[in-house]
Amino acid sequence: MCPARALTGPAPRTSIASAGKEAHVTRLPDTIDATEALLAGQGYVAARALATVVFLALKLGKPLFLEGEAGTGKTEIAKTLAAALGRRLIRLQCYEGLDAASAVAEWNFAAQMIAIRTAEAQGGADRDALKTELFTEDYLIARPLLEAMRPQPGGAPVLLIDELDRTDEPFEAFLLEALSDFQVTIPELGTIRAPEPPIVILTSNRTREVHDALKRRCLYHWVDYPTFDRELQILHSRAPEAKETLSREIVAFVQKLRSEDLFKKPGVAETIDWAKCLLALDVIALSPEVISDTLGAILKYQDDIQKLHGSEAKRLLDEVRRDLTPA
Ligand SMILES: Nc1ncnc2c1ncn2[C@@H]1O[C@H](COP(=O)(O)OP(=O)(O)OP(=O)(O)O)[C@@H](O)[C@H]1O
Ligand SMILES: [Mg+2]
């Protein structure tokens, strides 16, 4: 395993101008501790194993494939890294039917038609010259994969390929080329290679298995629900206004719910949302009534909500209070 060294101070930052805004570029962390600190600086509380795999992905320049339950912080890792390192975030949101053109680049047909009409109006252009001109970068609309292969201010961007399990297998096969050699091919233009490989984060909710060939090119990590202590830290970071007693009750209750037989267990996102709802209602401690009234923040299926109505919420809350009482 890689040596872990304590962070001896903030990573050096330099300013760059990006799209008219002042952005900061931070060098890549050189230890696991520094990676944890980098993420924590943006309010992201990473388990040691996650910080390790992020550190390795950055160090080795390998894509990172994150699989896990919904709302456990997979997408947020990419956003956090981009913000912490001062890199541009480029997101490819996957969906069923996503094809190479929508992911890499499309020809701007409207602009091409205008160019053709203008040339015709000007008295008939040189057809061959026009044909060549129409298939240059001027008429290309870059989509996320092409954007990610281009040089960006501040260094290689963070490329988030989100919810890969929603695409189909042919698209995965196509991604292999992009991720193996960090290059994309546009038939009319040729192959475009990234001068510096992007930092690639892929996520999946595992609604289907992603092919081994793609996984082999990545470092893999399963993002699990956090432990009680880590979830409490996350809540402190994302909803710092919540008092300690209420935060502990919220986290313990959500953790208890995850051990119940539910159709859809609440993720960390739901814990944070619920805390914010309770704060908006000026709640200072949980009660069965408050839980019943705000269940829609943590459970999103009527069958699950139904199970928690009535005495069940009280039973769980009593158990939570017992667990939280020091022995
Ligand atoms: N470890 C963490 N530290 C700080 N915030 C977290 C952490 N994990 C989750 N969150 C918060 O939870 C919310 C949901 O995270 P995110 O959208 O990344 O989940 P996800 O795993 O991508 O979910 P989905 O599978 O539904 O897309 C975000 O607002 C994020 O800030
Ligand atoms: Mg996500």
UniProtKB/TrEMBL annotation:
Highest rank taxon of the organism: Bacteria
Concerning PANTHER family, the annotation shows: MAGNESIUM-CHELATASE SUBUNIT CHLD, MOXR FAMILY PROTEIN
Where would I find the AAA+ ATPase domain in this sequence?
60-238
Any single GO molecular-function term of the entry would be: ATP hydrolysis activity
Its signal peptide is none
Q: Which organism is it from?
A: Fuscovulum blasticum DSM 2131
User: What is the organism lineage in this UniProt record?
Assistant: Bacteria, Pseudomonadati, Pseudomonadota, Alphaproteobacteria, Rhodobacterales
Q: Which Pfam families match?
A: AAA_5
Q: What is this protein called?
A: ATPase
